[in-house]
Amino acid sequence: MTAPRTSVPDPRSTQAPRPTFAIGGRAPVRRLGFGAMRLADGPVPEPHPSPVWRPPAHREQALNVLRRAVELGVELVDTADAYSLGGNEELVAEALHPYPERLLIATKCGVVRPSPGEWMPLGRPEYLRQQAELSLRRLRVDTLGLLQLHRIDPEVPLADQVGALRQLQEEGKVAHIGLSEVSVREIEEASAVAPIAAVQNQYNLADRRHDDVVDHCARHGIAFLPFFPMALGDHARPGGRLGRLGRLAEEVGATPAQVALAWLLYRSPTVLPIPGTSSEKHLAENMGAWDVTLDEARLRELDAPA
Questions:
Q1: pLDDT in tens, 188-211
Q2: Which of 70, 92, 121, 185 is buried deepest, with most CB atoms within 10 A?
Q3: Catalytic residue among 83, 99, 127, 203
Q4: Among 202, 224, 204, 203, which residue's Cα sits nearest to residue 215?
């Protein structure tokens, strides 16, 4: 069940969602970004899976998707040093460098990949600093616009992990600091060490475990970047035609994916969805979420448990 949201100003209204949000109060971007993780995984020998392990099989297609995203108005591109072992960052730079003035590249560090199926937190300060230096090289920048701690390492004090990012910030190598997959308590603990500009957690219509984090971010002016923003779950299952989401999408003349993204834009003025795709067609569809209007009755219906 969705948690009560009386603690923050209700963003629900018949007015269109605010089009931009300033990350860290200083980096305004359009609130519909692009997640580059899907631009990965070329052929890999059996029996190994390839979950974001190798560069894309169709590199030119991936480059074109990134360039088209910016043409369609994307101002926030999210990647990570763990995607394709740094190859995803290189792909972003190849497609978009020199970067447009308003384009913010967000990356992440703090996860090590010993094999295709392993994602292991590694938050030792010296490792985080090394990975940030490598990200600077791969992205071809002097300052990382947003560096996020990919996962908290339970073996290292959180203050030490965030402290390493704060040191990079003080050196001018990081503009804004973020966290990923964290609780409100962890955000508060990290905020005592450094200003937290963004939080990236899994969140969508079907998975609202982090409702309290969304509200905390709204109260404190922190950007909330929901990953897997279109995991439609029970909302898209048959029960009508495509279920509740499909019916509402038909009513407003949109696709279910567009309505799922629009719901996030209405959810809070600090939410910045980062849908990813390897298809220019799906990219254009996702960006069409800006054209979806949801009235109070439809928002209430979407808010209700599936």
A1: 999 999 999 999 999 999 999 999
A2: 92
A3: 83
A4: 224
Q: To 10 degrees, what angle do helices 256-267 and 243-252 make?
A: 90
| Residue pointed to by tokens 């220019």 | 280
Ranges 169-178, 192-201, 225-234, 258-267: which has the least confidence: 225-234
Angle at 228 between CA 225 and CA 231, to 5 degrees: 135
Position 258 pLDDT exceeds 60: yes
Instruction: Record the tokens describing residue 41, joined without a space.
Output: 């995984």
Q: How far apart are CA 145 and CA 206, in angstroms?
A: 30
**Beta carbons within 10 angstroms of residue 56's beta carbon:** 20
Q: Evaluate whether 260 touches 229 at the Cβ level (below 8 Å).
A: yes
C-alpha R_g of the chain:
19
| CATH number given to 22-232+267-279 | 3.20.20.100
Domain-by-domain residue ranges, the chain?
Answer: 22-232+267-279
Residue type, 165: L
Asked if the peptide bond before residue 195 counts as cis, ω within 30 degrees of 0, the response is no
CB contact set of 170 (below 8 Å; sequence gap of 6+):
none
| Residue 16 predicted with pLDDT over 90 | no
Cβ proximity of 149 and 106 under 8 Å: no
Q: Determine whether 83 is an active site residue.
A: yes
> What size, in residues, is the chain?
306
pLDDT of res. 293: 95
